[in-house]
Amino acid sequence: MAEQRIIVVDDGSTDRSLSIAREFEGRGVVVISQENRGQSAAANRALKSANGDYVKFFDADDLIHPELVARQMVRLENSDTAISSAEWGRFHGDDLTTFQLNPERVWRDMETDRLAG
Q: Helical H runs in the chain?
């Protein structure tokens, strides 16, 4: 398996994000700091630094199941015609009890012949 690493782009944060990220630097974590240019610029900067076959974007306010990436990799393994997506939802403030799932068609398994047509 190829080297796995996490790329953290600090986009001019004003909290302790940069110093916390730097604590993990050198242990599979690459930290990039830039002045605030917005989420898209930060994502583009991370993508420029990536050199693997797969990229998982993960914003500061995202939460994922601990096994999500591993499960997605199993589904993608040995396939050059698959894409990976997942169901998602929103919560408000820091209150996870407000979580609402946003069901979408794209998160379910689909046969490749249905995608080709």
A: 17-22, 39-49, 68-76, 112-116
Q: What is the value of pTM for the model shown?
A: 0.72
pLDDT, tens digit, 9 for 90 and up, residues 56-72? 888 888 888 899 888 88
- CA–CA gap between residue 56 and residue 99 (Å, rounded): 22
Dist CA 93 CA 105 (whole Å): 27
Is-contact 8 34, C-beta < 8 A? no
Listed in sequence order, the residues at least 6 apart from 36 whose beta carbon sits closer than 8 Å to its beta carbon are: 11, 12, 13
Q: Which amino acid is at 55?
A: V
Q: Is the CB of residue 54 less than 8 Å from the CB of residue 73?
A: yes
- For the chain, the 3-state helix, strand and coil shares in percent, each to the nearest 5, are 30, 20, 50
Residues comprising the chain, all counted: 117
